């Protein structure tokens, strides 16, 4: 990391000395109370200089690639969570008035009896579970086990009673979204190019666990130099599995609970979590549903409570990374400009990312 890049943030904020001990009874590996909690968490490292540097470096050909799956029926639908519903409502003349005046759905009908142009308009109602498709998990999603503590000491009843103040997913949108550099670690490609056994996406433990040694080797392999303010994206190949599923398999996958699921991801280990913190990653994400390997094995560091409730680091899940990976390989660079503007959901737990990678 160059001194110029290091100077873009306060280096003291990258020290793991801010983190509580791993054996802390309530919130292990937590950055608070050493660093005062704030509504955007680790994203507070971002500043205009980081965004400008990311844009200058990342946007070279102007190609933009969406990262979200659709939010309703043609998107993902997993783990016994309701699929999105999309209702189209016809407005203009009400049904009674249409019947009374003798109008219908005839496209040739252009005016009413007074010669006034007849205008039809449509509204729509979208009902979604923000956990059912591509998403940012925010800091109110997953508590520490046992203590039930969320980010900054927020409790279960605070969330249920909407008493979390500015701490909600809307804070990310109000901050202007997430505008920074994204880096992609493509695990299947790394394994292939290094003649290592492949990791089937739905097998955990994996043949090649995505632990810190592998992550560091992959970073070097893809000629990446992570720096504070980056977003870490890890491709596992989960998107391939979902795309290849038959309709029945997709239905079956929807019916099973997350507890029944199994896939590999980033290993939940203390050194991995501290690397994420010390590097200054402001968010992490993956094409799989959890970022971390699932299920979480005994004695592993559970990354959901640690990153979300402990460090204020959003987790992106079920991201469409295949096209991004293909473009990275085509251009032989694994970094790009990353832009995401979540929804302004007051008291919100999560949001579709509304994200693009721009090359």
From TrEMBL:
Family matches, as InterPro entries: KFase/CYL, KFase_sf
GO BP of this protein: L-tryptophan catabolic process to kynurenine
Organism superkingdom: Eukaryota
GO molecular function terms attached to this record: arylformamidase activity
Lineage: Eukaryota, Fungi, Dikarya, Basidiomycota, Agaricomycotina
Similarity comment text for this entry: Belongs to the Cyclase 1 superfamily.
Naturally occurring in which organism (per UniProt): Cryptococcus amylolentus CBS 6039
Annotated Gene3D superfamilies: Putative cyclase (3.50.30.50)
The protein, known as: Cyclase
